[in-house]
Design a protein that fits this description.
6-stranded mixed beta sheet, alpha/beta, 231 residues, Rossmann fold, 6 strands
Length: 231
C-alpha cells in the first residue's frame, strides 16, 4: 500500500490498495477488491472502513467484489471542518455518487450504525442496483427515539451550545468512547486491539494518545526495560 499515511503496524491489518474518488467536491477513500457480485460494507460513527478488515479476504475468496467506502470526514477520506458538510443528506449523496460512479449492480449492502440511514436511503432510491440488504445495529425510523437519544447525558450534553463543541471538537469525546462501544465490550481488550491504534491514526485525539503513551510506558517500566517514547 505505497503512499499510505498509515503506519506499518496498521497497514499489516489493512493491506489493500487505497482508492480515491471525487464526490460532490470531496475526496472519498474506498477499498475495491475482488470480482463478482459486489458487497458494499458501510461503517458508522466514529469508525471507518477498518471496521471490516476481517471481512475482505473471506468475501473475495467466496467470489465477491468488496467495496468499503470511508464516509467523508472519516478514515482516509477528506475531513471538512464545516459542520454543514456532515449532514445525513450529505452522506447519502456522497455514497450515492460513489456507487453510481462505480456502476455497481446486483450489490449486497451491509449497513452498520450510520451506515443504516445512508445505505438504506441509497437502496430506496436505487432499487435496480441492490439485490440484498444486511442491517446490523442501526435504525431506519425517526420516531420513537431510542432511550439513548432522550438522556441528558451524554446525548443532550453533546448537542448543547458551547459544551457540545468543546467536548466533541476540542476533545474528540465521542470518538474515543464511541469506538470502544461500537467494536468491543472489554476496555482492556480494546486498548490492546489494533482497532484502537487504527482509529487514532485517522482521527487522532491528542489527549487520548498522550494518555495511552503514558500507560504503555508504565507497562514497560514494570517489565524492567527502558521506556520507549510513543508517537
Amino acid at each position: 500500500m505505497e503512499g499510505s499515511p498509515l503506519p506499518i503496524g496498521i497497514r499489516e491489518q489493512w493491506p489493500w490498495r487505497p482508492r480515491f474518488a471525487g464526490v460532490n467536491g470531496w475526496r472519498m477513500h474506498y477499498v475495491d477488491e475482488g470480482a463478482g457480485d459486489p458487497v458494499v460494507l458501510l461503517h458508522g460513527n466514529p469508525t471507518w472502513g477498518f471496521l471490516y478488515r476481517d471481512f475482505v479476504a473471506p468475501l473475495t475468496r467466496a467470489g465477491h467484489r468488496v467495496v468499503i467506502p470511508d464516509m467523508i470526514g472519516f478514515g482516509l477520506s477528506e475531513k471538512p471542518t464545516r459542520e454543514e458538510a456532515h449532514s445525513l443528506n450529505g452522506h447519502i449523496a456522497n455514497l450515492t455518487a460513489l456507487l453510481r460512479r462505480l456502476d455497481l449492480r446486483r450489490m449486497t449492502v451491509v449497513c452498520h450504525d450510520w451506515g443504516g440511514p445512508t445505505g438504506l436511503a441509497f437502496a430506496l432510491s436505487n432499487r435496480d442496483r441492490v439485490s440484498a440488504l444486511v442491517v446490523m445495529s442501526t435504525w431506519a425510523w425517526p420516531l420513537p427515539p431510542a432511550d439513548f437519544h432522550t438522556r441528558i447525558f451524554p446525548w443532550r450534553i453533546m448537542h448543547a451550545p458551547l459544551v457540545g463543541p468543546y467536548l466533541l471538537g476540542r476533545h474528540n469525546a465521542l470518538a474515543g468512547r464511541g469506538v470502544y462501544l461500537s467494536v468491543e465490550v472489554h476496555l482492556e481488550g480494546f486498548r490492546r486491539d489494533e482497532a484502537s491504534d487504527a482509529h487514532d491514526q485517522t482521527a487522532p485525539d491528542v489527549w487520548r494518545r498522550h494518555q495511552r503513551s503514558r500507560e504503555k510506558s508504565a507497562r514497560v517500566f514494570v517489565n524492567g526495560r527502558r521506556p520507549v517514547e510513543q508517537h
